[in-house]
Write a structure and sequence with these properties.
By secondary structure, this protein is mostly helical. Strands 1-2 form a two-stranded parallel ribbon. Helix 1 packs across helix 2 and helix 1 crosses helix 3. The chain is built from 5 helices and 2 strands, in the order αβααβαα. It starts with a helix and ends in a 5-residue tail after the last helix.
């Protein structure tokens, strides 16, 4: 399995209504230093309907500034449709919605 495939397998484990960070995905995929690689992999996601890349956020709980499948607002809308709530500053409360706290 190549690096991107490992990343995609981890992202597939993030359940609806939960989020993860690039760093969390990188760590679970085998290397905590792969955060940027996670971003690259998600940007070329071969199966957007199967690999839920919209559930991956920055370490601060922010959406991706260049969400590959329609822009930043699309990522937020997809998350809100799954029950994820955003703070007034546009971030997600990782203590409440992160996969590792559920």
């Amino acid at each position: 399995m190549n690096t991107f495939e490992k990343i995609y397998e981890v992202v597939k484990t993030i359940p609806k209504g939960s989020v993860a960070t690039y760093g969390w995905v990188a760590d679970r995929a085998g290397n905590p230093r792969w955060s940027r690689v996670v971003g690259y992999a998600l940007h070329v996601n071969p199966e957007p309907g199967i690999i839920p890349c919209h559930r991956v956020l920055t370490r601060k709980g922010e959406t991706a500034p260049a969400f590959a499948f329609g822009g930043e607002d699309v990522q937020r809308k997809l998350l809100e449709a799954e029950g994820i709530e955003f703070r007034p500053d546009g971030t997600v409360d990782l203590e409440r919605f992160a996969v590792w706290n559920r």
